[in-house]
Prior knowledge:
The structure is a single chain. This protein is of the alpha+beta class. The chain folds into two domains: 25-101 and 109-173, Sandwich (Immunoglobulin-like); 181-279, Immunoglobulins (Immunoglobulin-like). Helix content is 15%, strand content 40%. It has helices at residues 2-25, 282-308, and strands spanning 35-39, 54-58, 63-72, 78-89, 95-97, 119-120, 126-129, 133-142, 150-151, 154-160, 163-173, 181-189, 196-203, 212-219, 222-231, 241-247, 255-265, 268-279. The strands form four sheets. Strands 2, 4, 5, 7, 9, 10 and 11 form a seven-stranded mixed β-sheet that branches. A four-stranded antiparallel β-sheet has the order 1-3-8-6, with no helix packed on it. A four-stranded antiparallel β-sheet has the order 15-14-17-18, with no helix packed on it. Strand 12 and strand 13 (196-203) form a beta hairpin. It starts with a helix and ends in a 32-residue tail after the last helix.
Amino acid sequence: MRVLHTFRRLGVLLLAATALYAAGAAPAAADDPGWTAEPAAGTAARPGAVRPYFYLSGTPGTVLEDRLALVNTTDRERTVTLRGADAYNTADGAFAVRPAGPAAEGRSAGAAHGAGAWISFGAGATVKIPPRTRAVVPFTVTVPPASPPGDHPAAVVATASGHEVGVRIHLRVSGPTLAALTVEDVAVRGRGPAAVVAYTLVNRGNVALAPELAIHAEGLLGEVPGRGARPLPVELLPGQRVELTEPWPGAPVADRVRVALTVTAPGAAPAVGSGTRWLVPWDLAGWTGLGLLGLGGTAAAALFLVRGRRPRRRASDDAPGDEPPAPTPAPDHELTGASR
């Protein structure tokens, strides 16, 4: 019995080991591309430092250099294609990169039009990475001589096996900088705890901004609870416009409110935008309308009944012996010019 028990334990261990080996040798899951792309660790100023994105700066006309690290975590060779791309804010404020679109007039397919066009991998735009291998790919950013100062958002985009990874490049061209923004299209939607304040932020300057928002509100009877200043989860890129909403749980259920938004950002003057709205509960308005409709219907019915009860004159109500007046005879008219 002990020998049988021992064999059973050995069988379980062998099955577990086989499962672990199979898991390690299995291909990557559908949500795991099997490779990564990130800035190579370390710079000349900070060797070995881990970087979440590239940060480059220089004067117009200079050539900047950096390196991209590609890691193949699978047991088969990977072919990765690299390109530069322009970056922008989506309508809701997210950071995104321009896709590789079709060819345009005078431009090749997938070519960038902004700072993404300044990025070059030379002969290394297509990289073959052996299994379980890390490859470091150098690239350059050539700043045109006539480039305006300020931030020029871009990204390095790596594509392999239908999967795309973008690594941001925070690129600043030396020169005067301007931090400026405006708040537009302020509106209140919903009411009470479900209310939100919708607004549009526009970056009017040439540097990226990290804005903070505060809400001040007043009703018919004075100030109502707003929201204190808090950082917004968005980095507003130069020249970009985003449409955002901010929860307002302290909004009144029934009132006429004026909402003033104050947005601040480092180096920029505060921007203020406002909007006004009547907050009327639809259920209260509905019951009020039904009440007025019912009151009007009752008044109309009462008026109809009063008119219907008025006495009418009947022939039997006339006094006995009274004769109806005789008709007045028509007067005789003489016809002139007729023969007699």
